[in-house]
Amino acid sequence: MAKKIQKIMVTGSVGQIGSELTLDLRRKYGAENVVACGRKTAPSKELKESGPFEWADVTDPEKMKDVCKKYGIDTIINMAAILSATGEKNPQLAWHVNVTGLINTLELARELELTQVLCPSSIAVFGAGCPQVDTPQETVLRPTTMYGVSKVTGELLCDYYVRRYGVDARGLRYPGIISAETLPGGGTTDYAVEIYYKAIEEKRYTCFVKEDTRLPMMYMPDCIQATIDLMEADFDTLEHHGDFNVGAMSFSAGELAAAIKKHIPEFAVDYEPDFRQKIADSWPQSLDDSAARKEWGWKPSYDIAAMTEDMLKKLGQRHAAGNLYKQPGS
Q1: Which terminus of the chain has a lower count of CB atoms within 10 Å, N or C?
Q2: Per-domain residue ranges for the chain?
Q3: Right CATH number for 8-175+219-245 from 3.40.50.720, 3.90.1150.10, 1.10.1740.10, 3.30.460.10?
Q4: Cα–Cα dist 146/90, whole Å
């Protein structure tokens, strides 16, 4: 039987996913019951004023413990991470934040007997030797980036703490995440967000991956739903723990451009691959997420057409108001 979740801490709450996830959790669990934590980036006005906010770094275990005790935290969602492209520029920092930060979080869960830790993983765990189409739940993991290396380590750490200490640690492998609310944060799939902004603003975009580059993607509402669904799942139904594949859609950069052109016929895309192309080539083209669907009922709501219509509508409204790059609530 699942333990009752009452007080949630979200680390990395100022990031692309964390900022939207925190607000959704506050709406569902009550604003006072969801503590947002950030390291150095100032929170938006909405994030700061809608509930408690604390400056806390996952690499500082004493500060993390202080926040847990202050608010009576029973669940930590660890969204703090250095992403793939940024991580290749500073791999030591990526390891420190992504691995040391997670160990600190898991140790807090063990020591304070917390209800749950959820730490997302990524499709970056995959690499050479794994099937690229319908990549299975169980397959070889040979990542080519420090971000991927750190996420494989994180999956193993979560599973170890479940097995060794009985900590309820969970994780899901995010595909590329596309959002109309927050700007991308230094990942290899950032093009799939940037392209919408440039389509609205300039009717032209220079894409940093090739036209036929195909990757699994997910719209932010589905990403948030998947995260909450896994968090709320009964522990006894889970056969896996730190490494669930979750899918929604899969498309090439060219197919994404074509979906946008249905709404903006004059939109044009140039393709000039950079260092991120090599990273994208090492990742899956699509995922087999049957384990998530079976064990906790995962089911996405958006495909590329529905996502594109919603993205262009929201960004178009902001552009008309003169604040395309100003994030809601900031």
Answers
A1: N
A2: 8-175+219-245, 177-217+249-282+301-320
A3: 3.40.50.720
A4: 9
Residue 265 pLDDT > 90? yes
Q: How confident is the model at residue 104 (pLDDT cuts 50, 70, 90)?
A: very high
List CB contacts of 91: < 8 A, sequence separation 6 or more. 146
Judge if 8-175+219-245 and 177-217+249-282+301-320 fold alike in CATH terms.
Answer: no
d(CA 98, CA 39): 13
Q: What is the pLDDT of residues 167-188, one digit of tens each?
A: 999 999 999 999 998 887 788 9
**Cross-strand partners of 121:** 173
**Side chain identity, residue 290:** S
Which residue carries 């791999």 as its tokens? 91
- The Cα-based distances of 131 to 56, 147, 282, 298 in angstroms read 39, 20, 10, 22
Q: What is the DSSP secondary structure assignment for residue 134, as one 8-state letter?
A: S
Closest CA to 54 of 89, 95, 92, 22: 22
Q: Is the pTM of this model over 0.90?
A: yes
Q: Is the pLDDT of residue 42 over 80?
A: yes
Task: Check if 147 is active-site.
Answer: yes
CATH for 177-217+249-282+301-320? 3.90.25
∠ CA 152-169-134, rounded to 5°: 45
Give the confidence band of 1 by pLDDT, cuts at 50, 70, 90. very low
Catalytic residue among 29, 147, 271, 302: 147
Strand 249-252 to 214-219 pairing = antiparallel
Q: How far is CA 272 from the centre of its chain?
A: 26
Strand 249-252's sheet: what is its strand order? 176-178, 214-219, 249-252
